[in-house]
Design goal:
Length: 377
C-alpha cells in the first residue's frame, strides 16, 4: 500500500499540471492561491460591466421608459475614462508615497469610486421611475449620469492598476499567462453575475432592482479588499519624492521608438468599437422586439462571456501552433459579420434562439479579434 501511494501522488501531480487551466501561470513569486485571490478584482469588474451594460441598460429603456439616446449616453460615459488608462498606468508607475505603495492607492481609490457610483444609482433610479415633476426627472437623470461616470472611472482605475500589480509580482516569463488568466476571470465574473442577476430579477420589481444594485456594491467592495490584502510589498525608496520621474511625453516617445505601431492601435480601437456597439442595443432589442424578460436578456451576457472564453481558448491554441495573429483577428471579423446577421434576422424570423446564437457568436468573434490584435500590439 505504501509503495502505491507515491505513484498515485505522482499521477495526480501530472494530471493537475496538465489539465488544470492556467496552472502554469503560477510561479514561486506568485503562487496559484495568491493569483486566484488577486484575480478577484477582475470578478468585481465583471459585475460592474454586466450591471451597467446589461441589466440597467435594458431596465432603463424598457421598464423605466428612459429615452434610448439618453441611456446610450450614460452607458458610454464610463468609456470616457478608457483613453485615460494610459495616463493612470503611467501615474501609478511613478506614484509618490511615503508608505511605499504604487498600485494600492489607485486600486483602493477605484474601488471607492465604484462603490460610490453604485450607492448613488438606486436613488437616481427611484427618481427616474416615480418622478413626475420636471425637476425630479432632471435630478434623476443627472444622478444616473453621475453614477455611471463614477462607476466607469473606478472600473478603469481599478483594472489598470490591478493588471499592473499582477505584472509587478509575476516573473517576466509567466506574465502573458498571468494576464490571460486575469481576463478569463473577468469573463467568469461576467458569466456568474449575469446568471445571478438573471435569477434574482426573474420576477422584476423596482425594489428588487435596488436590492441587487446595493448587493453588487457591497460584493465589489469585499472582493477588492480580499484581492488587495497583502499583495504589494512596501518599498519607500521606489516611491520617494526625491526620485527622478520621466514625463509622460517621454514615455510615449519611447514606446513609439521601440516599435509601437500607431496603425495597430487604430485597428484595435476601431475593431473594439465595432464589437462593443452592440452593448447599447442588444438587451433592449431582445426585450422590445423578441419580448424577452429581464432575466432572459441578462442571461445574454452570460452567453456573450461564454463565447468570448471559447474564442480565447481557440485563439490561444492556434497561436500556440504558430498561427498568424492577424489571421486570427481577421477570422474574428468574419465570424462577427455572421453573428450580427443572426441578431438582425432573429426579428423577422421571430426566433429568440437565433438571437441567443448571435449573442454567443459576437462574444466568440470578439475574443478571436481581441487576442489576435492585442498580441500584435
Amino acid at each position: 500500500m505504501s509503495a502505491r501511494a507515491p505513484s498515485l501522488l505522482q499521477l495526480w501531480t501530472r494530471l493537475s499540471s496538465r489539465y488544470l487551466p492556467f496552472a502554469d501561470a503560477a510561479s514561486t513569486e506568485l503562487p496559484l492561491s495568491r493569483l486566484m485571490r488577486l484575480s478577484l478584482f477582475q470578478v468585481s469588474i465583471g459585475i460592474s460591466v454586466v450591471l451597467l451594460n446589461g441589466t440597467l441598460n435594458r431596465v432603463m429603456i424598457v421598464e423605466l421608459g428612459v429615452p434610448s439616446w439618453l441611456v446610450a449616453t450614460m452607458v458610454a460615459l464610463p468609456l470616457v475614462f478608457a483613453p485615460l488608462r494610459v495616463l493612470i498606468g503611467f501615474k501609478s508607475d511613478h506614484h509618490r508615497s511615503v508608505l511605499g505603495w504604487r498600485r494600492v492607492p489607485y486600486i483602493w481609490m477605484g474601488t471607492l469610486l465604484q462603490f460610490g457610483g453604485l450607492a448613488i444609482m438606486p436613488f437616481a433610479l427611484l427618481l427616474l421611475s416615480s418622478g413626475d415633476a420636471p425637476g425630479q426627472v432632471i435630478a434623476g437623470r443627472i444622478g444616473a449620469a453621475l453614477a455611471f461616470l463614477l462607476v466607469g472611472a473606478g472600473l478603469h482605475t481599478t483594472q489598470t492598476a490591478g493588471l499592473s500589480l499582477a505584472t509587478d509580482i509575476a516573473p517576466e516569463h509567466s506574465r502573458p499567462r498571468v494576464v490571460a488568466f486575469l481576463y478569463v476571470m473577468l469573463m467568469f465574473g461576467m458569466m456568474a453575475s449575469a446568471l445571478t442577476f438573471g435569477g434574482l430579477l426573474a420576477e422584476f420589481s423596482e425594489m428588487r432592482l435596488i436590492q441587487v444594485i446595493q448587493g453588487a456594491a457591497v460584493t465589489e467592495m469585499v472582493l477588492n479588499v480580499i484581492a488587495l490584502w497583502k499583495q504589494e510589498a512596501r518599498d519607500p525608496s521606489r516611491t520617494s519624492a526625491a526620485r527622478e520621474r520621466p514625463r509622460f511625453g517621454d514615455s510615449w516617445r519611447h514606446f513609439r521608438e521601440a516599435g509601437g505601431s500607431l496603425r495597430v492601435l487604430v485597428a484595435v480601437g476601431l475593431g473594439t468599437a465595432g464589437f462593443t456597439m452592440q452593448d447599447i442595443l442588444l438587451e433592449p432589442y431582445g426585450a422590445e422586439i423578441l419580448h424577452l424578460t429581464v432575466g432572459e436578456t441578462t442571461a445574454l451576457t452570460a452567453l456573450f462571456a461564454a463565447g468570448t472564453l471559447v474564442g480565447f481558448g481557440l485563439s490561444a491554441r492556434r497561436l500556440g501552433k504558430g498561427a498568424d495573429p492577424y489571421r486570427i483577428a481577421a477570422l474574428g471579423g468574419l465570424v462577427g459579420l455572421f453573428a450580427f446577421s443572426c441578431v438582425i434576422f432573429s426579428a423577422p424570423l421571430e426566433s429568440p434562439n437565433l438571437f441567443r446564437l448571435g449573442a454567443g457568436l459576437i462574444g466568440f468573434s470578439g475574443g478571436l479579434f481581441s487576442v489576435g490584435m492585442l498580441l500584435t500590439a
